[in-house]
Amino acid sequence: MASSSSSLASKPFFGASKLDDSCLRKFSISTVQISFLPRTPKKLQIHAAGSTFGTHFRVTTFGESHGGGVGCIVDGCPPRIPLSEDDLQFDLDRRRPGQSRITTPRKETDTCRISSGVYEGVTTGTPIHVFVPNTDQRGHDYKEMSIAYRPSHADATYDMKYGVRAVKGGGRSSARETIGRVAPGAIAKKILKQFSGTEILAYVSQVHQVLLPEDRVDHESLTLDQIESNIVRCPDPEYAEKMIAAVDAIRVKGDSIGGVVTCIVRNAPCGLGSPVFDKLEAEFAKALLSLPASKGFEVGSGFAGTFLTGSEHNDEFYLDEHGKIRTRTNRSGGIQGGISNGEIIKMRVAFKPTATISKKQNTVTRDRKEIELIARGRHDPCVVPRAVPMVEAMVALVLVDQLMAHHAQCGLFPINPMLQEPLNEASIEPDNMAL
């Protein structure tokens, strides 16, 4: 510091031939003393992971199957969106247990309560807290699971990871946790509908060996009423009856079967998703494979596309009557290069059989002894009908999070009208928002 001061004082400053004492006092360089304290060791801190999803529209779920209740906290929701508990209850009712003979007999109303983030019927932009109490608990049904592990469940792996677990109902590994996904998914669907007219519809396309042919469903005209017209949530009445019969046949045997849920997105804004690691299909894959019992994921032609050549599989571009770029086919499933291209997004999620009831299975105990176990409790003979609103919710959460990310990066300045289109072509009408 001393050499710098002397160098400064010996040279003309801003054209002055000589620096007098007043100038030196005015422009003197202050010295700052920094002291370093001895480093003290800190206690090891572990940040629990796995219960939060999203970056801009951020959802954290909480609760366990047989605890006091389950729910979520939603952070990043835009303000001034009309929202009530009824908006969430519709999808929660579609997810809840005890809907029909082909779902788990557990009786829960799944009535939700919003305790923050909404004021006088509109969102405030602050965290939204949603809670659903557990009311129909039967902890004694899980006595055997405190001793031995159910095959193909999370019992053993939770013990291996944490050294402790909530035995009753599977704790956090229970599908009851998905209440905390379906509720914010309903909010996300409302935002997408108001902003860009985006619609998300999922339906059951396969139950065990009953496969719904693709040409039996028109994705351009498919409606929620068609999906909700039967207890298995298949929009084709003939195949719905076949699926219900398959579930009934296995249900009376105390066994279970899996299936596939197909989900479509209409009017998704172009440009959602980012290269390279945040491709839209990669975001969908993570979201949907995080659902309980999910074991497979496809976009567009999926694995079937491997039977085609490139010339057969490629989606050719053309200009429609409005001068808009479209594709003649949609084998890419509305996503090209990891980014949405304006066509209908189509994806499928495969769900495994989840439980066997009243059937002996070989397993091991927590103290490493081989035994036979008869699992008790209440389970879905086929999870796919109740998985439909769960799939819609996760797709909605991905889309709204990606929409907010795209708007933040690409909406800061005016678009290039030669190459881009406005995000919200189905723009928000004034009556749709609380101003």
UniProtKB/TrEMBL annotation:
It catalyses: 5-O-(1-carboxyvinyl)-3-phosphoshikimate = chorismate + phosphate. Keywords: Amino-acid biosynthesis, Aromatic amino acid biosynthesis, Lyase. One of its GO terms (biological process) is aromatic amino acid family biosynthetic process. Its cofactor is FMNH2. It is an enzyme of class 4 (lyase). PROSITE patterns: CHORISMATE_SYNTHASE_1, CHORISMATE_SYNTHASE_2, CHORISMATE_SYNTHASE_3. The keyword rRNA-binding does not apply. Signal peptide: none annotated. One of its GO terms (cellular component) is cytosol. Reduced FMN (FMNH(2)). The keyword Iron-sulfur does not apply. Its EC number is 4.2.3.5. This is Chorismate synthase. It comes from Jatropha curcas (Barbados nut).
